[in-house]
Amino acid sequence: MLSDYLPEVIEIDEIYVKLQGEKKFYGWLAYDPRNKFIVDFVVGKRDDDTLEELFEKLKRFRGRVKLVLIDGYQGYGKIH
Q: Could you give the number of structural domains in the chain?
């Protein structure tokens, strides 16, 4: 059951989507690379507020995941 799902590793990164050549969206993904599974995501701007929304959704894993991988985006350091 997905409510029992606990990844060992979560990678966090943003994606950029362009639809029909016009509509542009950013999404933030929390991804389990071992099982190729999207743990959670948010769609919004590429900003700290949207990233914080993703981290809020990931609180259920705090202290239970072995490793969280991030890239060099400066906003990660602002999230608590």
A: 1
Separation in Å, CA 77 to CA 3, 9, 42, 61: 28, 19, 19, 18
Compute φ and ψ for 37, nearest 5 degrees.
Answer: -130, 130
Output the six-digit token pair for 58: 């990931």
* DSSP assigned state of 43: E
Q: Which residue range forms the structural domain that includes residue 60? A: 2-71
- pTM, full prediction: 0.79
Quote the distance between the C-alpha of residue 2 and its chain's center: 17
79 lies in a domain?
A: no
Q: Could you tell me if residue 77 is inside a domain? A: no
Please write the tens of the pLDDT for every residue from 2-60. Answer: 667 889 999 999 999 888 888 888 899 999 999 999 999 999 988 889 989 999 999 98
